[in-house]
Each structure stands twice: as C-alpha cells, then as structure tokens.
Amino acid sequence: MLIKGTFVHTPRLGDLEILEDYLLAVGNDGFITHFRPVGSPESIELLRDHAAETTTVLTGSFLLPTFCDLHLHAPQFLYQGTGLDLPLMQWLDEYALKAEERLDADKILAKRVYERLARRLLQNGTGTVMLFGTIKEETNLILAEAMQSAGVRAFVGKLSMDISSRPTYVEASAEASLSSAKSFVDQCRHMMEQVPLHLRRIEPVLTPRFVPTCSDELLGSLGDLSCLESLRVQSHLAEAHDQVEWVRSVRGAEDIDIFDRYNLLNPRTVQAHCTFLKKPDLSRMVAAGSSIAHCPLSNVYFSTEPFPLREALSLHIKVGLGTDIAGGYSIDIMNAMRHAVTVSRIRESSAQAKHEKDTDDSQDTGTTYKTLAIDWKESLYLATRGGAEALTLPAKSGTFEVGSFFDAQLIQLVDPVSRSGVGALDFFDLETNGDGDVKLNQDMLEKWWCIGDTRNRVGMWVQGVKVL
C-alpha cells in the first residue's frame, strides 16, 4: 500500500512536523517500509512500479498517528457520562462495582457494551487502548474478542481483587485470584495464536485494581508472575485523598511503597493518576522505568491534587493520556488533550503568583522560573508518540518513520470541492500552493485541536488494516 499526501506527527515533545507531498509505503505486516518526499528518487521509483496501489490524500486533509488511551474501564462504559457526584471510594461502591458485577452476570449485555465501545474508540481516533475489565474470565474474553474483531489494539486486564467493599463482587482468596489471572492470560494468548501474527491485536495485562482491593499475598504473587512471564501490569497509584488515606491507615504505608515491595513497579507497568506523588516518588518511577497514564478530567472529579505533569516530563518519565471512563465522562482523547493543557495552565498561574510573591518578599531569589504549563503540541505528543512509548510499543511507534506501525487517522479540515471548513471548523484565509491545493499550517491544526470533532475523522488504520 502506498499513500501520498500530507502527514503530521510529533516525533519529540514539543516538536510538530507538517510533511507535505510525502510518500509512505506499508508492508504486508503493517509496518512502514518507506517514508520520503514524493520527489525523492526512491519515491519516484515506487510510484512508477506501483501506481495502481497508490492512494492520494485529498487537499485540505492530513494523516496523523492514531491516539493511545492508557487508562479506560471497559465495563464502566455502561454508565459513561453519569454518576460523578461522589468521592472516589463511595463512587466505586455506588456505581463502578455494580456495573462490573452486572456485566459479569450478563454475557449478552457485555458483548453489546464492548462492541459499541470498540466502535466509539475508532470513531474518536483511538487505535490503541489499555483496558481494565472485570473479575470474571469469560467476560474479559468477550472484551478481548470485541476489540480484536473491530481492529483495535488492546491490552486487556482481568481485574484481580481479593478484597472488596461489595461482598457479592470479590474473588474468594488470593490463591483463587492468582489462578484466575493465570488462566485468563493463557486463554487470551491461546485466542491470539489462532490469528495470523501481523493481525494479533490483543495482549493480556495483570491488573490488581489498586492496593485497597488486593492483599499483600495477592500483590506479591502477581509481581512474581509479571517477572516470570514478562507480563504487563496496570493499576491505580496515589489517585485520590480518601484512597491515599485509606492505604496509610489500613496498610501503614504509601501505595507506591507497596507496589515497589512486590515488584509491581517495573518497565512493563502503567500506573494511572499518580496525583499525590512527590518529586522523590517521581524519581522512583524513573528508576523503575514505569509509565504514567495522565487522566486530567477524572483527576478533577476525584483528586484534590493535579498531576505534576511538567515535573514528570522533565524527569523523562514515560507519560501518556487516559480517558478513565467512567471516572472521566469523555471517551475522546482530544478532550483529554484539552483538559491536560487546561489543568497545566491553572498550575502555571498558581505557581507564577507564588513565585512573584516570594520574589517580592525576598527581593531576589536568584532562581530561574520554569513554566508548568504545556501547549497543544506537547499534548498531541502525549496522545500519540508519548502514549506509544509509555506502552512500550515497537520503536518509533506513534510517528511516521520507517520501522513503525502504520497506525493512522485521516483528518479532513477543508472540503476539497467547496473549500469550506468541515464540521465546526471555519477558515477565512486559506493559503494555497502552486497547484491550487490547500496549504496546511499550524494555525489550522491548532483550530482543529481546539474545536474539531468526529466529523473531521474520515479514515483509520491500525497496523496497516483499515478499520474506519
């Protein structure tokens, strides 16, 4: 497959590249094999030999890497957009656990919810997702099948929890929970063995829900299993005030200490939220090689602290974005990007005011102030390349470079016939090149980032397979 047109990506934090008139080639395995300007000798040769296989991106449109969602509770999609009126620990009892129990008891409902979830993810540009499931193996296999069938690359986690505030929704013991986790891993892997290698989209993930629902025995066993079989791990870390205080009072430690003690902080780990981590804790995340799923919208609802995003990025922690359905109400990673910028600007305004006061009080602190805000281009990196790195996808994933997955979404900003903006977009000063084609610029991309929606997304590919 050859695609000719305009490509946009963020290969480095803060760097956005608009690559016009490029040619991209995709191999049968879904990896990019060529990416050069159309006028290069190699591109000219490819176009000559494979003209019939070439797709041209129309003027006013561009290709962008698909989004990565690092944290989403699949069964909670059942009540997305409702039930955000309680603190975290009460919310879990009142809404989350009930929904998860309901899907575990109703296979038909689970299939309907998960198939719709997969479709919504693709409509919103998400090609890769890390999912929390439920405690029942069969329900999580339904989830895995729904994602595989839709073409979504999904890391699926069967919940492990031998402690629960809901007596009807808990695993019988640490031993039973571990056995179920092992069984799910085996069944999930067996399912993928039936699929051609380049079309395998599903990988199992060990998923201790969080410290309050897991005994020390269970956490230790899961840590051993992760190391023994090189399995990914996902959980929640330092998320909310009531959760942090519960762990301190009941377990007598910080939850980062407990995860670390049981080898659940490792390079295969993605921890969600992390809003209460201080700088020494962030340094521990760096040393462990673990990643963080930043979920700005749900943090507003459930945490009294914003995540220290700029500090984490400055320490080179691998950070991506998560929607945290249903703790966050929007499945759209574009909204997660917007909220990430908004929260960072609030942090910046507060820090700037404090810096100015401290400077006034001391006349001269002798320090250089550094911004805590991020901009839209940095958030786009987090949603694409940053998310791919946090999930330890193959090198260069999340970009248009030779050797990376061809994971792409086709975004249309301008109708090629009417030359008017698509969806919510309006452009009054369109620039064209010598051929009369619309010339994209950063202002147009920023407008799409701010107010674009699903009407602008007209195609999706995951590892070379068209899924939308």
Automatic annotation (TrEMBL):
Its cofactor is Zn(2+). GO terms for biological process: guanine metabolic process. Residues 62-431 form the Amidohydrolase-related domain. Keywords: Hydrolase, Metal-binding, Zinc. It comes from the Eukaryota. InterPro entries: Amidohydro-rel (IPR006680), Metal-dep_hydrolase_composite (IPR011059), Metal_Hydrolase (IPR032466), Metallo-dep_hydrolases (IPR051607). GO terms for molecular function: guanine deaminase activity; zinc ion binding. Gene3D superfamilies: Metal-dependent hydrolases, Urease, subunit C, domain 1. One of its GO terms (cellular component) is cytosol. The keyword Hydrolase applies. The keyword Metal-binding applies. This is Amidohydrolase-related domain-containing protein. It comes from Laccaria amethystina LaAM-08-1.
